[in-house]
Design a protein that fits this description.
Length: about 290
């Protein structure tokens, strides 16, 4: 990552804290600042996770969060973009509000005190600033109902994060018996991390005794939902044939994840009984494979 930032063609980086396991955003931000480049933290999976005593999302020039139903808190759909840079805030709001140059809040007019006095090369004299478009934007505002749903959960973020972290530790403690054939991420706290706020529990297969798909099929048939680690190596998907992109390195890590890794839930609403059932199902699978 740091080597790729040195390339003149790279103007910045957008990097995800995947499944709530954080990268060292502090080091990357420092490198970006030295090189005059930007860092956007994708925190969709990591609401509540901390490094160096700070929440992830507070290191980048901007950060993004997802409030999709399966995430830490939900507004049904939608999410949030955070920044502490006033110039970026104006640009972000413009992209959110159809690309308008105006920064008036909804229901307000003439915040700039010269609504009909702005000068533009190709616009008529006195053109309304509220309807001056300087970016190609979208209508991305949350509805009041979505916002109310999100606000109702904000006070519970710490409890949700703690429950997810406790659930992760419980699954890890029960499944590490089979670490001879499965691999799980574990953080030894090099960045003063705890507690994490994990989105899921990733599992990698490191044996030839069975395949990822065999285990996934067994879990799914037992009522335990699984997911791949998102796209894996996204350049192997059909959509990649439609775009120009430049690949740096052989992407062997992404290939390994695509072929050997999946994840199960550690949602805060799940109970210890749910997780005991998960562990028993793994036990049954290994017994069927002659590994117990």
């Amino acid at each position: 990552m740091l080597k790729a930032l040195q390339r003149p063609s790279v103007i910045g980086v957008i990097l995800a804290h995947t499944l709530g396991f954080p990268y060292d955003a502090k080091v990357i931000r420092e490198e970006c600042d030295k090189l005059g480049k930007f860092l956007i933290e994708d925190c969709a999976d990591a609401l509540g996770t901390e490094i160096y005593g700070q929440k992830v999302g507070s290191f980048g020039h901007a950060s993004t969060f997802s409030f999709f139903p399966a995430h830490h808190i939900t507004t049904g759909e939608g999410g949030a973009v955070l920044t502490n840079d006033g110039r970026l805030l104006k640009l972000i709001n413009s992209y959110r509000d159809w690309g308008r140059d105006c920064w008036c809040a909804p229901g307000n007019d003439n915040t700039c005190n010269k609504r009909f006095e702005h000068k533009w090369d190709r616009l008529p004299e006195g053109w309304d600033h509220k309807y001056t478009f300087t970016n190609l934007g979208y209508n991305l505002k949350m509805t009041e109902l979505q916002a109310a749903l999100g606000l109702s959960q904000i006070q519970r973020i710490e409890d949700i994060s703690t429950a997810r972290n406790d659930n992760y530790v419980f699954i890890y403690d029960k499944l590490r018996t089979w670490s001879f054939c499965l691999d799980f991420p574990w953080v030894d706290d090099p960045m003063n991390l705890l507690p994490l706020s994990p989105f899921g529990f990733p599992i990698s297969i490191k044996t030839t005794k069975f395949t990822k798909q065999e285990l996934v099929d067994y879990l799914e048939k037992s009522g335990i939902r699984t997911r791949p680690v998102f796209a894996g190596n996204i350049t192997r998907h059909p959509m990649a044939d439609q775009f120009y992109y430049e690949q740096i390195g052989d992407l062997s890590g992404s290939d390994f994840i695509m072929e050997n890794t999946f994840w199960i839930g550690c949602h805060d609403a799940l109970t210890k009984e749910d997780f005991y059932y998960v562990v028993e199902t793994f036990y049954s699978f290994f017994k069927e494979k002659g590994l117990i």
